[in-house]
Design goal:
The structure is a single chain. It contains six helices and two strands. The protein has helices at about 1-15, 35-50, 65-75, 80-95, 110-120, 130; strands at about 20-25, 55. A two-stranded parallel sheet has the order 1-2. Helix 2 (about 35-50) links the parallel strand 1 and strand 2 (about 55).
Length: about 130
């Protein structure tokens, strides 16, 4: 996954004019158990938006995904999870990563996002049980 994020970043930087980039979001969560797919998709979309993704093939009926898009586009950090998504977006945009100090691990939603980022960045090997804990 980090390679795709960096590929989008590079396409936007080196081409003049920069190409429009589209992604099929559910590809990142293929073969993942259904209950865990939305979180992977949301988190990955935030990371791709940070590097200039122009459009994505998404599930428009996933209300949490639509809310996550709104949070990033409107810079709404009014909830702890929303604030963390914005930190993730800004870190990826800057070519950096979230730091453990950015996350309140006592907040289950923030812990889920953190763990998902670790999977997407290949920091930990994906297992269903890792994301469930």
């Amino acid at each position: 996954m980090p390679q795709c994020i960096e590929a989008v970043r590079m396409l936007k930087m080196v081409a003049d004019p920069p190409p429009m980039v589209n992604a099929g979001l559910s590809n990142v969560s293929n073969q993942v158990p259904t209950p865990m797919r939305p979180l992977l998709n949301r988190t990955y979309l935030v990371m791709l938006m940070a590097v200039g993704l122009d459009a994505a093939i998404i599930d428009p009926l996933d209300h949490e995904l639509m809310e996550t898009i709104r949070i990033v586009q409107q810079r709404d950090g009014s909830t702890p999870a929303g604030a963390l998504y914005l930190k993730l977006h800004d870190a990826v945009a800057a070519g950096a990563e979230l730091e453990p100090t950015d996350v309140d691990m006592n907040d289950p939603k923030q812990a889920e996002i953190w763990k998902t980022v670790q999977v997407l960045l290949n920091k930990v090997i994906y297992t269903d049980s890792y994301l469930r804990l």
